[in-house]
Amino acid sequence: MAKKPNNEDASLDMTPMIDVVFQLIIFFVVTLKMTDDKDTTIKLEDGSHGIVLTQDELPPSQLTIDVAKTGRVSLSNITLTDQMLAAKIRERKAKFGPDFPCMIRADQKAPHRHVARVMNICAAQGVWKLSFVAIAEHKKPQK
Amino acid sequence: MARKPQENPKAEMTPMIDVVFQLMIFFVVTIKQEDIYSKLNANRPAPNQSSSSESNDTQIKIDIGYSGLIFNGRGVRMNELRSNLKQLSATSKNATVLIRCTMDSPHGRLVDVLDACNQYGMHNLSIFSL
To answer: Which of A22, B15, B89, B107 has the largest CB neighbor count within 10 A?
Structure first.
């Protein structure tokens, strides 16, 4: 009689604990993936009047081109040459048409010539609707 | 022998709690709160397309240089540009805004100008490079 309730209590206590562990693991796997796929050296300018980016604004067809202060052009933190970028844009255009969301994340101190180079590559492929990413609201502590 | 299983369930909890705390600490340390981003739309006419063929009266010209802004041929500061755009937006929000940037101008200033245009509902924005 004394054995049964103790045994059951212990096994019942485990379930929420396992739930929490799985929840945490899933949360952390999902959030970690997002921090890795962009150039983290880029410091964006503030722009609170633009269209706030939500998941709806980021369909699979969107392309975010990173332009660092040094002129490094990258997609998902992979450095690209002008030819590679042009090929990527051509591929997107063939798949989704010329109006796919093409966004440029350029550093606030990047000279315009680097951004102009990227814009010219886009325009030469027939993609002339571009967006620039800015910070609508600061959440992380600024350095 | 029959009493042993009674002890085992209690002993199994400890590593589980350790794991939960480890995960909690790891996750608190690594996850940074992300900023909220916005996008500012603009058009980039094809390089061979000339801007001179369009009529001049409905156009607003903003030149962005290394050290300052020129609004319709007049040097302005950012707050003056905003008040000018505010006045113009009252009459027509559809006017084309031609934004011309010099190659050495910082990108942040272009974003500032685009943001100001967005603030007053100007949505016909074209960016040229000089």
So the answer is: B107
| pTM of the entire predicted model | 0.72
Residue among B20, B34, B112 minimizing CB distance to A20:
B20
Residue B123's pLDDT is 81
Residue of B101, B111, B128 to mutate for A, most A C-beta atoms under 10 A = B111
| Cα angle B5-B10-B15, degrees, rounded to a multiple of 5 | 120
Residue range A55-132 forms a domain whose CATH class is: alpha beta
Is the pLDDT assigned to residue B38 strictly greater than 50? yes
Q: Give dist(CA B98, CA B128) in Å, integer.
A: 7
A3: pLDDT strictly greater than 80: no
Whether B1 is covered by a domain: the verdict is: no
Which chain B residues are Cβ-neighbours of A140 within 8 angstroms? 32-35
Q: How close B73 gets to chain A, by Cα (Å)?
A: 20
Which residues pair with residue B76 across a beta bridge?
B69
Say if B10 falls within a structural domain: no
